[in-house]
Design brief:
Blueprint: E1 17-20, E2 22-26, E3 32-36, E4 42-53, H1 54-67, E5 73-76, E6 82-87, E7 91-96, E8 99-109
Length: 112
Amino acid sequence: MAIETFTWATQRGEAPEITYRVRESKFGSGYRQTVGDGPNNKEDSYPVTVFATKAQTLKIMEFFDRHGGAKAFLWTTPLGELGLFTCKDPKPTPVGGGRFKVSATLERAFHP
């Protein structure tokens, strides 16, 4: 089965959460040794928002339901980097006039 791509246009302006996992050992005289924790030590997540009609919102939620918070999908970050992501927290909120706001956090994954 092919990996699906999240293609809906997201609102820009939210700051991503980017951290690097490191291991650190401290020694006497203030000396410390630091090394990256594994080959994929960069952890990044992106809060996204999509404004959509009810029909579009149902399709977005079906997409997230198919992936169930664990199965990765492709998405292009605001910097234009294509990567694998998961989403555990989609929130569809009615905003009136038959429109919805879908808020979610897309977290980097390293396997499909």
